[in-house]
Design goal:
single chain; alpha/beta; two-stranded antiparallel ribbon; 27% helix
């Protein structure tokens, strides 16, 4: 498959700048990416066997490998074929050995177990995704409250963790945060908030306030109003010690 790559740069917080490639339909690194990388860096001190779910450009695994925190091969997967090609090309550019697979959620990794699992799969309301500035035609089948994919991951992550493993995942307030946290606390004894960042509602969504208020009233998303602005937030959690 021939890909027309575009060059981009990404500089993680307190990290090393990376020169990457992407193609149309692949998520560029964003705030969630940065928060995930930083959460792992503050938790892990030596190289681990790592799985990056929803790898996109491969930026999370590659960044952590450059920091000396991920063993080769880096295991990464994405449902998107262009994402798989981008990740493979980016790992190749940095001479990092990687096992990049195409498939949904944990489907490509049957029988495998990891020290670290990082989930970076879409978790916002399916009704918001197509009118947001982020998706640009990328499919989003997350349900009206944005939890369908993430709940599946939370319910199955422990099956793919080695003993004393670490599971990192983000939650966005444009989804049903309460439902996600209830689920993970039923699956793991230890659930710890590591990162949180608030951000203003994008202008592209401000014109859709009736829809957003309806979703908020239903409990599908959370909106906060302060300083005359509508605020959203991203949080990154660490889950450990599965409940068997």
């Amino acid at each position: 498959m021939e890909m027309k790559f575009t060059d981009i740069e990404f500089l993680p917080k307190n990290g090393r700048k990376m020169n990457l490639v992407t193609v149309k339909g692949v998520f560029d690194p964003n705030t969630t990416t940065d928060l995930l990388i930083n959460a792992v860096k503050k938790t892990i001190s030596k190289p681990k066997k790592m799985l990056d779910l929803g790898c996109g450009t491969g930026v999370v695994g590659l960044s952590l490998w450059l920091e000396g925190l991920a063993k080769e091969p880096i295991c990464s997967s994405d449902l998107s074929v262009p994402s798989v090609y981008c990740s493979q090309e980016n790992f190749r550019r940095y001479d990092c050995e990687a096992d990049v697979r195409c498939g949904a959620l944990f489907e490509p990794w049957g029988g495998e177990k990891f020290d670290v699992i990082i989930d970076d799969i879409s978790g916002i309301s399916q009704e918001i995704a197509p009118i947001s500035p982020w998706f640009g035609g990328v499919p989003c089948e997350t349900g009206s409250d944005g939890t369908d994919l993430v709940l599946n991951i939370l319910r199955n992550a422990s099956k793919y963790l080695l003993k004393d493993g670490y599971f990192f995942f983000p939650v966005l307030s444009l989804s049903n945060v309460d439902a996600l946290l209830r689920e993970v606390k039923e699956k793991f004894y230890t659930v710890e908030l590591l990162e949180r960042q608030e951000w203003p509602l994008p202008k592209e969504l401000e014109v859709h306030m009736p829809l957003l208020k309806k979703l908020s009233k239903e409990g599908s998303i959370k909106l906060e109003e302060r300083f005359g602005m509508v605020l959203c937030y991203t949080e990154v959690y660490l889950a450990r010690n599965p409940i068997n």
